[in-house]
Design goal:
about 90% helix, rod-shaped
């Protein structure tokens, strides 16, 4: 309990305990924020990789189509 003060000791004890709770939770909340930020960054990287792979697939299809057209043009 809190020392003798003009304020009710139960009130000062409640405020003190609330402050201790907030300070004790701060590291866990900070690490949670770090993990969320890292997960978001990784997901953005994966989305960019998927988009790049899709773009390269389109280029590959265009090259294949052009090559087939050239081969069929020579056969005539």
């Amino acid at each position: 309990m809190a020392d003798n003060t003009p304020v009710n000791s139960q009130i000062t004890d409640a405020v003190t305990q609330n402050n201790v709770k907030v300070v004790a939770e701060a590291p866990a909340q900070a690490m949670g924020l770090v993990y969320q930020t890292m997960a978001h960054s990784i997901s953005l990287s994966m989305q960019n990789a998927q988009q790049a792979q899709g773009g390269l697939q389109q280029i590959g299809n265009a090259v294949t189509s052009t090559a087939i057209t050239m081969i069929l043009g020579v056969a005539k």
